[in-house]
């Protein structure tokens, strides 16, 4: 989409063409004023530097020390990083990240593709209402999402009530309070939250696919399934890279929903890297270790983004 | 044409999916209207007073004030900065652009976790933790990357003919920004404001770290505190959750299209 916008020549009207000099120029190139531009940029750049850039560099530096936040810091070299890979809590947290990628990214994408393919077809009525409804969870603040799911999973909540009502009372659980169930329970809450976003983004991607392609498949005698794999899926490459980037990055840094429901427990059964970071930074300060987690998250996020962008380009 | 059977299956599947998504929300709304503090549904006795009671007991007026001050300042100042830096990169050009533009873009991918811990200690040494100034500054700083990228794209889409005719009329850079570029980029600015409103209003993590004084905390933290205190009063907790969600849900439903366009292009880097 941004590529379209990035090509202003196409957007310009006929009068523009008449005036265009042989050398192709970008809009406003004639009055480019780089020093004045720097002046316009300065306020934003300063705030960005103070809040993001400088602290990020400080974070990299801090990660090389042992520091409790109060007394003198001592040099640690790469110890915080080597500890990252040895620490059983963190190893657990990383395993959970993979788990969350499944529930926050893979599942919502699969479901989103399915429901977008179903609801975007011309013959289906009420597609707009459907998308507005499934998009609702995406607008809720995590604090509210936590209230909702704590209620649904409560020992006397609707899930357990329903199980008891159909005589399966022995299957009732305190879902968020049990080692076995807490992680999948949170995963489902995550799928619930991300699914609407995937549906809506895929639908808007599908609207850009020319209708003739579908007609062609139908003429060939192809059904809905073939239509999906030969036309819809390849046409969604752009949306797919957006959706993957958004959901994978969210899965890597899950914090709010877990912190507000289980605080990483019971035990460490739902702990995530960001929760460890928060605890190390503020509960029982080991600031260097917290900073090293932040740096590793940054590297992983940047790598993930690069891989996703690369993959979506390669196929074209 | 699609066959009849295929169509029926489509509707059934979509209905099941919708129900699964909406069910938890409906349940909580039901709780919010029920008289029983243990949370058993009783829609025969709708208790609208739950909303007022939850609001008073949770002290949400104070939290609302903070949320409005924080979100309002971030949206306004953030939009101004985004317009200026977007204009710089999109129209004027910037000295050192090859270095500065990727540097600014980096902020879109960089997770908050990378800089939030040092940021906390920095803010502590400036004495601005637990203040509106501090949390507003942090939100704005984080919004610069996306805002700049977004407004730059919008300004570059302005047809060359229009900008040039303004130049012939003798308009300076400042006048051109106000008279030509801003009016044309209005839809983009609306989207930017919407996104920045939602992100700031819904934030939990950043406020949790930078604001520990309840007098300056936003609604999201207020709800967290309330749910800790009132575990028993499930109906009141649900009522509070419903109230807090309303502004964003209404806003997003009204502007859903702009909202989605924003998300779509936000992650697409060039």
Describe this structure in words.
The complex is a heterodimer of chains A (316) and B (270). Helix content of chain A is 71%, strand content 1%. Chain A has 316 residues and is mainly alpha-helical. Chain A has a single domain, classed as MetI-like fold. Chain A has a two-stranded antiparallel sheet. In chain A, a hairpin with a 7-residue loop joins strand 1 (65-66) and strand 2 (74-75). In chain A, helix 6 runs parallel beside helix 10 (182-206), helix 10 packs antiparallel against helix 13 and helix 11 (211-219) packs antiparallel against helix 12 (224-235). Chain A starts with a helix and ends with a helix. The model of chain A is unreliable at 1-25 (pLDDT under 50). By secondary structure, chain B is mostly helical. Chain B has two domains: 1-58 and 230-251, no CATH class; 61-218, MetI-like (MetI-like fold, Orthogonal Bundle). Chain B is 79% helix and 0% strand. In chain B, helix 1 (4-33) packs across helix 12. The longest helix of chain B is centred in the N-terminal third of the chain and has 33 residues, at 60-92. Chain B is globular and about 70 Å long. The relative contact order of chain B is 0.15. At the A-B interface, helix 1, helix 3, helix 4, helix 6 and helix 7 of A face helix 1, helix 3, helix 4, helix 5 and helix 6 of B.
Secondary structure topology:
The complex is a heterodimer of chains A (316) and B (270).
Chain A: H1 2-6, H2 8-11, H3 14-19, H4 34-62, E1 65-66, E2 74-75, H5 79-86, H6 88-119, H7 127-139, H8 142-153, H9 158-165, H10 182-206, H11 211-219, H12 224-235, H13 237-252, H14 256-261, H15 273-283, H16 287-314
Antiparallel strand pairs in A: 1-2
Chain B: H1 4-33, H2 49-57, H3 60-92, H4 97-109, H5 113-126, H6 132-156, H7 160-168, H8 173-184, H9 186-202, H10 205-210, H11 219-229, H12 234-254, H13 256-267
Helix pairs in contact in B: 1-12, 2-12, 3-6, 3-9, 3-11, 4-6, 6-9, 9-13, 11-12
Transmembrane segments (chain A): 35-57, 98-118, 130-149, 181-202, 242-260, 287-309
Pfam families (chain A): BPD_transp_1
Protein name (chain A): Sugar ABC transporter permease
């Amino acid at each position: 989409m941004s590529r379209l916008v990035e090509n202003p020549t196409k957007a310009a009207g006929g009068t523009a063409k008449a005036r265009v000099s042989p050398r192709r120029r970008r809009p406003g190139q004639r009055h480019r004023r780089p020093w004045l531009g720097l002046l316009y940029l300065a306020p934003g750049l300063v705030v960005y530097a103070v809040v993001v850039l400088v602290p990020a560099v400080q974070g990299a530096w801090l990660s090389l020390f042992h520091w409790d936040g109060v007394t003198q810091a001592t040099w640690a070299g790469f110890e915080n990083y080597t500890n990252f890979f040895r620490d059983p809590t963190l190893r657990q947290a990383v395993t959970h990240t993979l788990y969350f990628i499944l529930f926050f990214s893979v599942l919502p994408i699969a479901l989103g593709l399915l429901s977008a393919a179903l609801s975007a077809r011309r013959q289906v009525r009420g597609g707009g209402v459907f998308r507005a409804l499934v998009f609702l969870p995406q607008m809720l603040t995590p604090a509210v999402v936590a209230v909702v799911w704590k209620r649904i999973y409560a020992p006397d909540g609707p899930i357990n009530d329903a199980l008891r009502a159909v005589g399966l009372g022995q299957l009732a659980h305190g879902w968020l309070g049990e080692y076995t169930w807490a992680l999948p329970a949170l995963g489902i809450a995550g799928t619930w939250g991300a699914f609407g976003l995937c549906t809506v983004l895929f639908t808007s991607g599908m609207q850009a696919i020319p209708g003739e392609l579908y007609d062609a498949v139908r003429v060939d005698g192809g059904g809905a399934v073939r239509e999906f794999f030969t036309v819809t899926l390849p046409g969604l490459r752009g949306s797919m890279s957006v959706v993957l980037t958004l959901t994978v990055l969210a899965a890597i840094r899950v914090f709010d929903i877990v912190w507000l429901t289980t605080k990483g427990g019971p035990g460490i059964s739902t702990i995530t890297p960001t929760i460890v970071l928060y605890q190390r930074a503020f509960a029982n300060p080991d600031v260097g270790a917290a900073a090293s987690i932040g740096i590793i998250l940054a590297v992983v996020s940047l790598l993930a983004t690069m891989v996703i962008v690369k993959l979506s380009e390669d196929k074209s | 044409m699609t066959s009849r059977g295929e169509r029926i299956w489509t509707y059934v599947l979509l209905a099941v999916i919708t129900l699964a998504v909406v069910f938890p929300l409906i349940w909580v709304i039901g709780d919010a209207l029920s008289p029983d503090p243990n949370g058993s549904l009783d829609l025969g006795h709708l208790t609208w007073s739950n909303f007022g009671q939850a609001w008073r007991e949770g002290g949400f007026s104070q939290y609302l004030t903070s949320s409005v001050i924080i979100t309002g300042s971030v949206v306004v100042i953030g939009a101004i900065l985004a317009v200026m830096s977007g204009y710089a990169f999109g129209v004027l050009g910037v000295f050192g652009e090859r270095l500065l533009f990727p540097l600014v873009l980096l902020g879109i991918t960089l997770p908050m976790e990378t800089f939030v811990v040092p940021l906390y200690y920095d803010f502590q040494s400036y004495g601005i933790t637990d203040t509106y100034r501090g949390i507003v500054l942090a939100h704005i700083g984080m919004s610069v990357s996306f805002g700049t990228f977004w407004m730059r794209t919008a300004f570059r889409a302005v047809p060359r003919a229009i900008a040039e005719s303004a130049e012939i009329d003798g308009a300076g850079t400042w006048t051109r920004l106000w008279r030509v570029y801003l009016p044309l980029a209005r839809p983009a600015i609306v989207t930017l404001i919407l996104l920045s409103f939602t992100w700031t209003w819904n934030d939990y993590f950043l406020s949790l770290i930078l604001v520990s004084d309840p007098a300056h905390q936003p609604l999201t933290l207020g709800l967290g505190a309330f749910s800790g205190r009132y575990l028993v009063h499930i109906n009141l907790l649900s009522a509070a959750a419903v109230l807090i969600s309303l502004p964003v849900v209404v806003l997003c439903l009204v502007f859903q299209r702009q909202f989605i366009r924003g998300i779509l292009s936000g992650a697409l880097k060039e």
